[in-house]
Amino acid sequence: MTDASDIPELPKALRAPEPVIVVGMAAWLVATIVVWVTGWGGDRAVQVCLVGLAVGLLGTTIVLVQRAAVRRGDRTAQQGLD
Fold first, then answer.
1. Exposure pattern of 32-53 as b/e (b: 16+ CB <10 Å)?
2. pLDDT over threshold 90, residue 63
3. What gap in Å lies between CA 54 and CA 32, rounded to an integer?
């Protein structure tokens, strides 16, 4: 069994959630515009796209709140979000 100190830490670029959130929200935004302009999929498709955008906003909010908690030094803050 290897010691935890032998395992190298991932680079910050691979640990950052921002690129995933931004790409996901951009994809949902493009899908929303395409569905809305073309009418493809009907009203339900527009609703699904809007929910996808809302989930992206919720995820962004959670990340920002947790980062603020880390900066404040809260004990309940998620670790590794510096």
1. beebeeeeeeeeebbeebeebb
2. no
3. 12
